[in-house]
Amino acid sequence: MFNSIDTIRLRGLDTLRAAAIALVLMSHYASFVSGEHTFGFLDKIGSSGVDLFFVLSGYLIGNQILAPIGRGEDFRLKTFFARRLLRTLPSYYVVLTVYLLFPHSSISGSSTPPLWQLLTFTQNFGLAYGQTFTHSWSLCIEEQFYVVLPLVVLALARWKRSVHLAWGVLGAAIVFGMAARALAYMQYGHGAFAANVYYSSFCRFDGLLPGVAIAMICNFHPAVFARLQRYANVLLVTGLGAASLVLYGLHNDLPNTFVSTTFGFSLVAVSYAVLTCAALSPGCVLNRIRIPGASKLALWSYAVYLAHKPVFMMLHPQLERLHINAGAPMTVIAVMASGIFVGWLLFQLVETPFMRLRARLYPASSAHRSPVTASTVLEHEAVGAGSNGLRSILR
To answer: What is the DSSP string of 103-129?
Structure first.
């Protein structure tokens, strides 16, 4: 649809996105189908796939906002919001409708958040384990992020020396997220962990900020970004090692639950940001190897994320009724494939048509064009963006 010169498709970003959705699938399979650690340590850390999604979203959305500002161009807030809504709302509302149409089925939880919260992506406030459509909590935080980030950037663009101020605000926001988790844990303890820590916007939004930091380096510190690109494979090994250590510590509450809760989520996000930074280099090994199906899974990841859990919850009682071993390899493959297939259908029937509509109504600028079928891209102009700070775009 668009000229291929407009974008550079990076296989490494697709690999990371595919890994993120694979981790989530394994975690939810263990929780809602087999009831045991079917994938070993991978399903134990599977929830961190959401943290990887957060970092990738932080970079990709941050880059969309910061790249035009770095070039001194207008950032069109209305167009940004319209494009985001057409990207995220249609598939979400289709899945939400399924939940609402079958309130007493196996896919429903102990209770359902109020409709106004479900429609406005605010159900993560006060959400508890076991409620209906709980996996939408991460979508809520991302939607809230899409609103807040451009407004903050526009406000910072009014100030002189705004790059330094922006770094200060970003660092302070990460510290705020850690402080919010510490206070919530001290006040509520582990008993109310879900509602007050795990699903909380105040306690989890900082997971997107390391991705925004990459976008800032890319657009306003090109010399630094170029040096990082030369050490992509070192960053890859470092990120994998750091993520493994942090996830092990977080899973085992090391050195204790309070410390792991306060700092663990931020450290996981930083580790995944190192991986993302590595994947942005064409010289990274992630961009030199082809993992069969990874690009497709990355492309369908949003739809698969929305659709897989109700599919798993619907199939689970059928497996029990037929006395089928949920841990058997062929059963695992069949159920996982079913979740991915329904996500693919959602992508084909809902997401793709709205992406085409978005391309007609709100075409991307030349700096941000990406094919409707591309899930992750690197805007090539971003690498060469100037380093003279956030310029005021309110002309």
So the answer is: TTSTT--S----HHHHHHT-TTTT--T
